[in-house]
Amino acid sequence: MSEGFVSLGHMTKTAVKTQKAAYRCAECGWTSIRWVGRCGECQQWGTIEETSSARVPQVASVIPLARAIPITEVDPAATQRTSTGIGELDRVLGGGLVPGSVVLLAGEPGVGKSTLLLEVAARWAQTTGTTLYITGEESAGQVRMRAIRTSANSPDLYLAAETDLSVAIGHIEQVEPSLVVVDSVQTIGSPTLDGSPGGVAQVKEVASALIRVAKQQGIPVILVGHVTKDGSVAGPRTLEHLVDVVLSFDGDRHSGFRMVRATKNRFGPADEIGCFELSDQGIEEVLDPSGVFTSTHAEAVSGTAVTVALEGRRPLLTEVQALVAPTSLATPRRVCNGVDFPRLAMVLAVLQRRAQVRCHTLDVYASTVGGAKISDPGADLALACALASAITDRPLPDHTIVIGEIGLAGEVRRVAAVERRLVEASRLGVTTAVVPPGYGAGSSTRVPSHMQVIEAPTLTYALTVLDLKNSRSRSHESDA
């Protein structure tokens, strides 16, 4: 009886060991023994696919054609970067395109992805070699019209309007380009797979096939990707894992200013940004974007404060503006543009509770100049000073910047890269900087020689130094 029991236990263990889940999420790989409409890991709908429940096949070893070599014997010149001809894009890529690399550029419709890549393709064809531009969204004639408008022409730039994966790869083999641009990966499909182009399985297969071509032939490939409503890259999450570089192209639809951000980069920093300006003549680099986010006033105006926000690794001089008005409403208005609304609510609460600046009876409007979107916590102090300046009707001193994060206790916290921020501000003529404690005299921070640095441990101290504590008139309070 005991032997039979042991045998039964052994069989049960073996059966459990060889059983595999029958359903898998195409986004994150989560598995389930039955089909469900929503993934239990990434919470995505409609990504559960049926997989084979057979045993895992045994993989036999194969003698490699090329032996493994020490890393010190690998020739680094084989992966030397090549410039795209656009300095701002090279900055984000880490210096240029690496042979065999695959870059995914994602952005909202109409932001200028095709215009930028057509410019890249034309400059690459003029300076480096043959370029192939595969368009699945437009005809070759439409792309030609854009090229004429933006002066992105070159006899070495080849166009192919194609949506079939096999034919697209055939074009690559026939043209033998040194750069391939695919616009976009969601419009290319394979007839051997079920589903329409843009589906999870189709996008994975198209991306995998193009990656194989890039690695085998040493050709850099740039893929254009769509985005979802929440701004993430459309398609399976594995698409971002497969490619080498993921770039995000964004900007305000009502402004010509555009930014390219690196969210993943295997060959360089993943926190760089490039600045561009989109116009009727095409897209141009913005070499000094700090001037875009600041305004020039003939005389001092209350309700404005300038800070140096850090976008990735790049410091940008940014102006924050605030306006207040008395209100008879029980709940005052809070309107912001370019400023995070929860951040605005927190700064107002700290101003009222810790710095005794009354703002609960005022409508508050906060905005940035030039369509900038500030997510850097180091801009908290500038927002607070702009609000206090608007409430007290006292302008900040000329050529002054304020940098620092505000805590709920009213303290001014340290932020990253203060030295780089001060150098950028000094380059643009700033003479006074209010910063968190630890960056003034006696610290390791190298301060520009002509700049005066004032350390502010608390928000109250910063407002006092800038003469924003007491208003000249109590018109706001009397009107309220």
Stretches with pLDDT under 50, minimum 5 residues: 1-19, 472-480
> Using only CA atoms, what is the Rg?
28 Å
- CA-based shape: elongated
The chain-level mean pLDDT equals: 87
Strand order of the largest sheet: 6-5-7-8-4-9-10-11-12
How many strands, which pairing sense, and closed or not: the largest β-sheet? 9 strands, mixed
Q: What is the tally of beta strands?
A: 21
Structural class: alpha/beta
Number of helices: 12
Portion in beta strands:
15-25%
Q: What oligomerization state is this entry in? A: single chain
Helix percent band? 25-40%
Structure description:
The protein is α/β, with parallel strands linked by helices. It has helices at residues 2-18, 87-93, 113-127, 140-150, 165-175, 200-217, 238-242, 341-354, 380-392, 418-427, 459-465, 475-479; strands at residues 23-25, 31-32, 48-50, 102-107, 131-135, 157-161, 179-183, 221-225, 245-250, 257-265, 273-279, 282-285, 304-311, 314-326, 334-337, 362-368, 400-402, 405-406, 412-413, 432-435, 452-455. The strands form 5 sheets. It has a 9-stranded mixed β-sheet, sandwiched between helices. A 4-stranded mixed β-sheet has the order 13-14-16-15. Helix 8 packs across helix 9. The longest helix has 18 residues, at 200-217.
